[in-house]
Design a protein that fits this description.
By secondary structure, the protein is α/β, with parallel strands linked by helices. The chain folds into 3 domains: about 325 residues, Nitrilase/N-carbamoyl-D-aminoacid amidohydrolase, CATH 3.60.110.10; about 220 residues, HUPs (Rossmann fold); about 110 residues, Arc Repressor Mutant, subunit A, CATH 1.10.10. The relative contact order is 0.08. It is globular and about 90 Å long.
């Protein structure tokens, strides 16, 4: 008879330094695994501590606390085993840091069961690109080496667990992203199940790449491949989207929900180990069996024929509440990307809501694209959380002070109506701050969008404040008063900065968090006023370029956010976004008509240049060539394109101090300009003068041919 096993994954919403809470969530997942008759349970990378503990990973007391938490998990497993009468065996793979007596710290996966700790498998390739700084905290483990850990007295290193003939190996996150992935060696060690505990942060389109290496790992190595990811916004900027997957025979056979706000999201399926073994038997590559460093565990991880039939019946009759909602599989590429972004923003804001113990948010809503998406994201955050949790659990998750302000759901009242009219007015306050240069267009856009999402809307005119600053400065220069001819930047910036103190005061009085509204494109060029639109606690859209922001806003108006409402797929549109979308981006800081693109360059060109520089690591001449190869020369001549490149690099090099001074933001796109976590750039530099001259020499050569 074929050998079957039941594999489960748990996406956990862990919190750095919350050892008791993290253990509670780990044990909750284990308890659910026991109830579902799961044989192998995979938890994420560093599940016991959370991924975002940063420099504390090297602290001895931190690692002692992690070891204590491990013992709490082992004690909990023991209690659950005695409570459960089925006698089933459960092998749990759980990520955690482990320190050696010499002070070296390793990123490991602990194999545990009710029978104790069986050993640790160590991560071999440490992520060091983008937002990752793992080599700062961890040591990479050499392939093929196993030692005995002196304190735990169990095998430690490149181990494989053999549970009565079922072999289980580990590829930890980055291990699977490299060409020489450990799965190659594990193939020769006859591994049946390959587990990938991950802490893989979200960026647009990344989940598709994950799925590729999961399916290919299953196919090429002839294994059942399980992947488990963290969930939530641990450190406040990186968003983990969950999305656990299990693949067998080269195909994904089960998926867990993504961007779910529950603490524990399970994913489980019955898999045929024998079918995967057949693919190894039929492989053209000869397996050179390597039994070194195989750790025997006295566990039975296969199911009897009766258990297999019972499991199939369970799968047919039980509602798969943690499965991925059906709408994800039906989205076009564009739909998928915009849906991911909106869910990611909402997911991040949910954690900021529930973990800061404040009473919601304040947004300086200008009626433009940026602040509109920020305000919409707060609404999406609570809309989706309400759908996922239900009213009771949704309210229970909110900080007590905020919860106390929200009137209860009336009998027969629709929960979405309740959210808009009772919850959102307490959660989000939007403030429009006009000057003499503001228009009715932006005022109405702000007002009607705030009404549509249920936010409390206020407006005031800050022109008297601006004029007071004019008078103060003119008093210092009586012979040279301020004028637009000589003081353009100063007169623009004082308007933006004058908006900051009042909205901060409103946020403080309401015990709410002020959200900054600057975007990725503006950050690149310094086209944001320090202490103006950069004011806030968190910069929600700092990781999204302007081109994408405008497209998302149009998409929210025309198509709407896909979601599952009461078990049915639906779309939720924000129709008042049309008042925002019909406008050209403008700061409204000059007395005459003003647009961002006239001040800078077309945003689509700006964002293309930025992507070439950050993602593809190109310099001016190469970027100019790439612009022409991608058809930008159809609308702009060669010298105009070169001028755009020069302007981009000139502004980029002139304003790195602004990027150091802006608020931390969510990591959303593949690239980021956060100098603390992604792109480090010298504050003082020569502005790429030599490289820009090289580009202009190239232009002269082309024109002379």
């Amino acid at each position: 008879m074929a050998n079957y096993t039941r594999i489960g994954t748990a996406a956990l919403r862990q919190i750095p330094f919350d050892f008791k809470g993290n253990v509670t969530r780990v044990l909750a997942a284990i308890e659910r695994a026991v109830a579902a008759h799961i044989n192998i349970l995979l938890m994420p990378e560093l599940a016991l501590t959370g991924y975002g503990c940063e420099d504390n990973f090297s602290y001895q007391e931190f690692n002692e606390a992690a070891e204590s938490a491990l013992q709490d998990v082992l004690d909990g497993l023991h209690r659950l085993h005695h409570k459960c009468k089925s006698g089933q065996d459960l092998l749990v793979a759980m990520g955690m840091p482990v320190m050696f007596p010499g002070g070296q710290v390793y990123n490991t996966t602990a194999f545990v069961s009710a029978k104790g700790l069986h050993g640790f498998a160590c991560k071999q390739y440490l992520a060091r690109n983008g937002v990752h700084y793992e080599p700062r905290w961890f040591e990479a483990w050499p392939r093929g080496k196993v030692v005995n850990h002196p304190r735990f007295n169990v095998p430690f290193g490149d181990i494989v667990i053999d549970a009565r003939g079922v072999r289980v190996g580990i590829e930890t996150c980055e291990d699977a992203w490299v060409a020489n992935r450990p799965g190659r060696d594990l193939y020769h060690r006859n591994v049946d199940v390959l587990l990938n505990p991950s802490a893989s942060h979200f960026s647009v389109g990344k989940n598709h790449i994950r799925e590729q290496f999961i399916k290919e790992g299953s196919r090429a190595f002839g294994v059942v491949y399980a992947y488990a990811n963290l969930a939530g916004t641990e450190n406040g900027t990186s968003i983990f989207d969950g999305g656990s997957m299990i693949a067998s025979e080269g195909q994904v056979v089960s998926r867990g929900d993504r961007f779910n706000v529950r603490d524990v999201v399970m994913n489980q399926t019955l898999v045929n180990l024998s079918a995967n073994r057949v693919s190894r038997i039929n492989s053209s590559e000869t397996i050179h069996i390597d039994d070194n460093h195989v750790v025997t565990a006295p566990l039975s991880l296969t199911l009897s024929s009766d258990a297999v039939l019972a499991a199939r019946k369970h799968d047919r009759t039980e509602a798969a509440n943690d499965e991925l909602p059906a709408f994800w599989s039906r989205l076009s590429d564009e739909d998928h990307n915009y849906t991911e972004i909106c869910y990611a923003l909402g997911n991040g804001l949910w954690d900021w809501t529930t973990r800061t113990h404040t009473h919601g948010y304040v947004v300086s809503l200008s009626g433009g694209a940026d602040s509109a998406l920020v305000a919409a994201s707060v609404y999406v955050s609570h809309f989706v959380a309400l759908e996922q949790l239900g009213v009771s659990d949704y309210l229970a998750a909110l900080p007590q002070g905020l919860r106390a302000k929200i009137a209860p759901l009336s009998q027969g009242e629709d929960k979405i109506t309740w959210l808009k009219h009772k919850a959102m007015p307490q959660i989000l306050v939007c403030l429009y701050q006009g000057t003499d240069n503001s228009s009715d267009t932006t005022f109405n856009a702000a007002k009607y969008l705030a009404e549509e999402i249920g936010a409390t809307f206020h407006s005031w005119n800050i022109e008297p404040v601006v004029q007071q600053y004019h008078q103060l400065v003119n008093g210092l220069y009586p012979d040279k008063p301020l004028s637009w001819d000589t003081d353009d930047i100063a007169l623009q910036n004082i308007q933006a900065r004058s908006r900051s103190p009042g909205v901060w005061m409103l946020a403080n009085r309401e015990n709410k968090l002020l959200i900054a509204t600057s975007n990725l494109s503006e950050s690149a060029l310094g086209y944001a006023t320090m202490d103006g639109d950069t004011s806030g606690v968190i910069s929600v859209i700092a990781g999204i370029n302007k081109t994408t922001i405008r497209k998302i806003n149009s998409w929210l108006e025309e198509k709407g956010l896909p979601l599952t409402m009461d078990g049915k797929s639906a779309r939720h549109q924000l129709q008042q976004m049309h008042r925002v979308n019909v406008q050209q981006p403008t700061a409204e800081l000059r007395p005459e008509e003003q647009t961002d693109e006239a001040d800078l360059m077309p945003y689509v060109v700006c964002d293309f240049i930025m992507n070439c520089y950050l993602a593809r690591q190109m310099w001016p001449k190469s970027i100019l060539v790439e612009l022409m190869l991608n058809g930008f020369d159809r609308e702009h001549d060669l010298r105009q394109l070169a001028g755009f490149v020069e302007r981009w690099f000139t502004l980029f090099c002139r304003n790195p101090w602004k990027r150091y001074g802006t608020r931390a933001g969510f990591h959303i796109e593949q690239v980021s300009l956060d100098p603390k976590t992604f792109h480090r750039f010298p504050l003082l530099n020569n502005g790429f003068k030599e490289q820009l001259q090289c580009m202009w020499n190239y232009v002269d050569e082309i024109e002379s041919d």
